[in-house]
Amino acid sequence: MTLDAVLIYIAGIWLLIGAIFALVGSIGLLRFTDPMTRLHAPTKVGTVGIGALLLAGMIHAFVTGDGSIHELLIMSFLFVTAPISANFIAKVHIHRRTCETPPEPLKDKTWSTLDVPEERPKAVEAEA
Amino acid sequence: MTAALEFMNIALVIAFCAVAISQVLCMIRLVIGPDTGDRILALDTMVVNAIGIIVLLGIWQGTQIYFEVSMIIAMLGFVSTVAYARFKLRGDIIE
Questions:
Q1: Which stretches of chain B are DSSP H helices?
Q2: More confident site: A127 or B69
Q3: ipTM of this predicted complex?
Q4: Which chain B residues are Cβ-neighbours of A83 within 8 angstroms?
Q5: Which of A23, A84, A102, B82 could form an SS bridge with B18, CB 3.0 to 4.6 Å?
Q6: Is the minimum CB–CB distance between A74 and chain B shorter than 8 Å?
Q7: Chain A residue nearest residue B10, CA to CA
Q8: Domain regions of chain A by residue span
C-alpha cells in the first residue's frame, strides 16, 4: 500500500467523523427540550464537524493535486467566531427569560478580597 | 489505490447524506422553534452545515474554487447571527 492510498483512507475517515458530528449535533438541536441545552448541541457541529471536513479536504488536496492550506483560514475563523455567536444567543435566551433564571447570589458581608474579616480592624485603626 | 478511491467515494456519499439530513433537521427546528433564540440558533447551525456541504462539493470535484465561497458564507453567517441577536437584545442593530 502506497503512502497516497493511506492518506486517502485517512481523509475518508476524517470525512466520516465530520459527517457523524454534524448529524449528531443537529439531532441534539432537534431533540433537546430546554433552550440552553439546545444551545449546547450545535457547537459541536461548528467546531469538530467542520474542522474534520476541512481537514479531510486539505489531505485530499495534498494527495490528488497541488496542496492547499488555506482551508486553515476558514477553520480558524469559525473557531474564533463560534463561541462569540453562542454567547450572543445565550444572552438572548437569558434576557428574553426563555430559560430558567439562575438563583440570586447569597447575601454575605465578605466578598472576594474585599472586607476580609482579619483586615477590617487594621483598616479602622489606620483611619483613626 | 483504487480501493482507497472507492472508500473515499463511499465516505463522500455518506458525508453528503449526513450533512443534508442534518440540514433538514435544522430546518425543522427553524420552523417549530418555540422562541426567537431557537430560530437564531437553527439559522446559525444551517450556515455551518452549508459551509460543510460546499467543502464536500469542493472535495467531490477536486477543485479549490469553492474556498472563497465558503469563506464568505462563514463571515456573513457570523455577522448575521450577531445582528439578529443584537436586534433581539436591544431592539436596534447600530445604536
A1: 2-32, 36-61, 66-90
A2: B69
A3: 0.88
A4: none
A5: A23
A6: yes
A7: A12
A8: 3-95
